[in-house]
Amino acid sequence: MHQSVFFAVETGGTKIVWRIEDAAGVVLDEGRFATGRPEAAVEALVAAAGNRTVAGLGVASFGPLVVDPASKDRGLMLATPKPGWTGFNLSKTLAERLQAPFVVDTDVNAAAVAEARLGAGRGARAVAYVTVGTGIGGGLCVDGRTLKGALHPEIGHMFVRRAEGDVQPSACPFHPDCAEGLAAGPAVQARLAGRRLEEADEVRAVTADYLGQLVAGLVFAWSPDRIVMGGGVMSTPGLIAEVEAAARRRINGYGAAVVMGEGGYLVVAEREHAGLDGAMLMARDGVN
Questions:
Q1: Looking at the predicted structure, is the pLDDT value of residue 1 above 70?
Q2: Domains with residue ranges and CATH for the chain
């Protein structure tokens, strides 16, 4: 009899990571490979599963993609610059090859689930997760379920008000004044011109301001009990406190500020592989 396992997959712009666990939660195998073309990814993941019987497949994916559980196109990748991925449904294709039930969500929604249950969001009912790295993304987990509507949140493309005198070109090809274009990794690196973020006060200030504006928008729109922030940019020592201070200045004591409490409302992510952890939780729960 083949061993029954749970299979978690997280797809990213440059790499795909995966993990296989048994029913008791013991990690049996894990790995990573370059994202490449989706057909090659399917073959690599099928090979990773081997002869095991997959009881549940959880996929945490980059977007944009269809995440509506009721849609016949659930898991379908929409327009993306990644070669070969537009119109491909990795989750459905892989599930059919493995003959397994599948759950699919965005990588940031999956990370929100993991941080809410296992990480920095423990004890909070509504947890927002924000990653600031190569891009900016975010998800919301409320009572264990993630926010999904006609599509899924794309908070990185929320517009922010430019700081006075800031003429840095946006790194986003779609929007001249969105948070991702002005405060994600590529934009920050362009401002730094080879310096380190912790050594460039003026760059830290403008980055914190734009991320603070984004956080203020989430506080007003979602009123989460806690906001967990991850990603390479947020690993800069002290930056999260500056972002929280900028958000409080923008909110200026109004309405939803009550959810922020006295301090520590923004916290650094605890899970090193939150998206993959979330994918495993989804695989086990079987809930989309």
A1: no
A2: 4-107 (3.30.420.40), 120-268 (3.30.420.40)
Q: What is the mean pLDDT of the chain?
A: 94
Distance of alpha carbon 32 from alpha carbon 44, whole angstroms: 10
Nearest to 56 by CA among 18, 110, 101, 105: 101
Strand 53-61: give its sheet, edge to edge.
27-34, 15-22, 4-11, 53-61, 102-106
Structure tokens, 159: 């517009």
Helix-helix angle 185-192:201-222, to 10 degrees: 160
Cβ-in-10-Å burial (0-12, 13-18, 19+) of 25 comes to exposed
Q: Interhelix angle for 239-251 vs 201-222, to 10°?
A: 50
Place of tokens 């947020």: 234
Which residues, listed in sequence order, are joined to residue 18 by a DSSP beta bridge? Answer: 9, 31
pTM of structure: 0.93
Per-residue pLDDT band at 46 (split at 50, 70, 90): very high
Which residues contact residue 126 at a Cβ distance below 8 angstroms, ignoring those fewer than 6 apart?
140, 141, 142, 143, 222, 223, 224, 225, 226
